[in-house]
Amino acid sequence: MTRVLPLLRLELQRLARAPVIWIVLALLFAAMLVAAMTGVARVRADEATLARIATEERQSVARAQATTRRWSTLGDLVVPVFRDPTDAYSYFYNFMTVHAVRPPAPLAAVAAGQSDLQPAYIRLNMSAVFPDTAYELRSPRILALGAFDLGFVIVYMLPLALIALVGTSLTREQDSGVLRLIAAQPIALRTVAAARFGAQLVLLVPVVTASAVAALLLTSAIGAGASPAGMAVLVALIALYAAFWIVLSALVASFWRGGVQALAALMLAWAAMTLLVPAVGALLVEAAYPAPSRLAYLDHSRALADEVPGSWEDEKGASRWLASRPDLRAAPDAARSAEAGRLARDVFFRDELASERTAFDTHGRAVDHAGNLVRLLSPASLLDCALQSLAGTDMAAQTKFIAAADTHAQVLRRHFEPIIVSNIGRARSCPTCPGRLNYAGYDAVPTFNPAPQSRLGLERGVLTVGYLIAVTLVLALWGNRRFRDWPV
Amino acid sequence: MSVRLYRAELALLLGDARVRWIAVLLWLLFAATFALGWNDARATAGERASLAATERARWLGQDPQNPHSAAHYGLWVFKQPSPLAVLDPGIDPYVGRMVRIEAHKLNDAIFRAAQDAGPLARTGSGTVADILHLVAPLAAILLGFSAFATDRERGTLRLALGNGAAPGRLMAARFAALATMLGGLVAVPALLFGLLAAATLDTAGWAAAPRALLWAMAEYCYVLAFLAMAVLASLIARTARGALAAALLAWALFCVAAPRLAAAGVEAVAPTPSQQAMLARIDRAIGAFKRAEAHGARERTLLARYGATRPEEMPISLRGALLYIQEQHDYRVYDRNLAGFNAALDRQDRLFGWAGLLSPMVAVQAVSQALAATDYRRHVDFLAAAERYRRTLSDAMNLDLVAHADAGYVGDRSVWEKVPPFVFAPASLSRSLGDAAVPIAILAGWLLLAGGLAFLAARRTKP
């Protein structure tokens, strides 16, 4: 130990004076800054969309209220029911503007994850057959390429920068013959290696971690409500990932195959972890869990549509549905109404297609779960997933949002069903007014309350921290063992 | 270039175990990704064709009903992917594959493959094109980085030049041998798989074979550019380690960082407009037109035009005419709003073409997608065709209703048959080439630049 410290100090001084180190680190910081700015722009765009949506919802209610005022006075205007927002049934199906929204999580700017595949909002369309088709069109080419966000820079580019800086440590001396000179000195190889790679750890890990945090702070990428625990996990993940690559470089160097082989091996390891493992994993997961057919799903919905009109326009289906809902207290001949027929038909569709929806959900969960298992083979891929979870942009968060939106659509249905059914057969309150005036509770429509970010992100982050510590330690111990003797 | 030298270099390469390993790995990756893509394309094509026929039968088999109700019943149309999508699916996984055709509503294409594939699939190395764009350059680098640097380290370059070998000729022979080898590793399988896709998948109207040939050529140019970069690094660097490091750095920058950086740059220069804002504008415009007061005013105008006081007195169907007028208005609203939105996305797409200046990978991606007909413009072609079809269907139904003043009129199969089956005519090869003119020129520029610099470096090379 006493011999390591002076050497470590020397190595640190050498590293700190090397211009190439600071050039590469400056480039990396610039990339982090650009990435953080990209993430912030994405989050701001989502926030602007959500603000517009809130305005749109308020305007829609205001328009309906204005129509109620206009049409509650005498007039000779004849209004078909589907154009009348003062009718509960028509308002529910044709005028109601309610969205499920997904406000960005505090660390959303860190990684776009899968959030770019799903919109930050879902307009709840009560006529929609498929609840999981909403999306906001973005440039598909940008979707295909992926986002240039901090997650990408950390997972993909940080290792490349570290490989460039430390990938040929000791092997460079081996190639040039300097290693023989060092070996001739009265010093143990482990001491030399510990000083060399220790200095890299001491200097580079804090600098790259601080760079990432600085990039986030300078771009105001950390949203209000970010938890200290989440930030601590984020910092730990970045630091450990950097340490992992330096330790891996040390291990590769310990095989003494020269600089070319060391570089090639590290690049191969990088390619395997970031590209090959996820790609092969995706192919295996796809083969193991083939996606249910969307075409068959669609075909079934159409077959149901063919089945419905003949039998449901009359009272058969509606009667069955009303009988199953005594809480609605329907009028005796309510089953003959178009309103009951439509409500009953929607329930029928939903029930009939439930098994397919479940199959898609099950498939999504299975793919996500299997994907997480595959990620255990690759620290890079696991870190990618952890960053997405911390940012609240992972697949699980998107799936939950879609499910919450669907649940809220059912809440709205439950809210309106008693109102619509109670209006069936009821005489108009103002027979000479253009509006039917049987509904004015626009302000009482249940609003969607976004769920707070789950603790899953934090838990996954902590697990990944543990994983990275374990893997790095194993590699360090292995490297230490191999650095026992000088290469012959 | 000396043919004897070329043959000697080629023989050396053929005997190199490293080349055999690279060949096995590349071919395996090509074969695996192609087999999966091809299998999926075959299965989906059959299911899609069957459902398209069923939808047509459903449309024609509707019960007699009001034609406008028939238009609401509508049908679904399906995107027929290019046969070369099995090589490069391009943007296809990120856009919807089927569109509901119905009265009043211009629907989005829905069900994106990326939604069902899971996040792992987004790492971008699960197709033949991904392997070609990401892994094949690595193969080119591993073949080329030691072309001169190793000889220099060993001192054999000094020997070769001392024996009178002109550096330019030596470089030409080595580069030609490496390019030949790379042709066998990359261009031949790319072409074979392209032709296999053309021969076994539905290719009507796609000009699949010429597209496959040009696609393979473009991919070959791309990997040759990386080979030239690796040879350049080998000529300049003092050691093989330095050459490999420089070439790998170029690969990481060009193939990993630059594409996403280009995406961020394009988004910053030409931001994607908000689809939500556009849809809200459309909703407001159509909603205002549909208001009961406005509708009543149009009704009165029509009655007055025919000198009638009641709909029954009109020689045409008032309801049908009003529906027709409304649809024509809605078409204009959609066109006005979508034109701006699509123009913005089209501008992004054009910028991506120029973004090829940042990296040959960005350029080859644009060229590859254009030649495989899986780029954004071909998707827009499908959406436009679907919307034209929706208007044909909607207008046919509304005009039939207009022609029948009887309030209880119902249409039958003869009316439904007025709507032809949906047929999508793929864009011609020349149009695809025209769309990709800029990235093609840039890709050629990359090859010429890297090759030219390598030859210049070779002429000045010293042992």
Features:
heterodimer; A: mainly alpha; two-stranded antiparallel sheet; B: 463 residues; mainly alpha; two-stranded antiparallel ribbon; elongated
Backbone structural class of chain B: mainly alpha
Question: How much of the sequence of chain B is in beta strands?
Answer: under 5%
Give the termini separation of chain A: 25 Å
Interface with most residues: A-B, 93 and 84 residues
Helix content of chain B: over 70%
- Total beta-strand segments of chain A: 2
Q: Please compute the radius of gyration of chain A using only Cα atoms.
A: 31 Å
Sequence stretches where pLDDT stays below 50 over 5 or more residues of chain A: none
Low-confidence stretches of chain B: none
Number of helices of chain B: 18
| Gyration radius of chain B, rounded | 29 Å
Largest sheet of chain B: 2 strands, antiparallel
Spatial strand arrangement across the major sheet of chain B? 1-2
The number of helical elements of chain A comes to 16
Task: State the oligomer.
Answer: heterodimer
Give the overall shape of chain B.
elongated
Give a quick account of the main beta sheet of chain A: strands, pairing sense, barrel closure.
2 strands, antiparallel
pLDDT averaged residue by residue of chain B = 91
Describe what this molecule looks like in 3D.
The complex is a heterodimer of chains A (488) and B (463). Chain A is built from 16 helices and two strands. Chain A has 488 residues and is mostly helical. In chain A, strands 1-2 form a two-stranded antiparallel ribbon. In chain A, helix 9 (228-253) crosses helix 10 (258-288) and helix 10 (258-288) runs antiparallel to helix 13. The longest helix of chain A has 53 residues, at 19-71. The mean pLDDT of chain A is 91. With 463 residues, chain B is an all-alpha fold. Chain B contains 18 helices and two strands. Chain B has helices at residues 3-14, 17-60, 67-73, 113-117, 128-144, 146-154, 156-162, 167-200, 208-236, 240-269, 275-290, 292-305, 318-354, 360-372, 376-402, 413-416, 429-435, 437-459, and strands spanning 75-78, 98-101. Chain B has a two-stranded antiparallel ribbon. Chain B is elongated. In chain B, 49% of the residues are buried. Chains A and B meet through helix 2, helix 4, helix 5, helix 10 and helix 11 of A and helix 2, helix 4, helix 5, helix 10 and helix 11 of B.
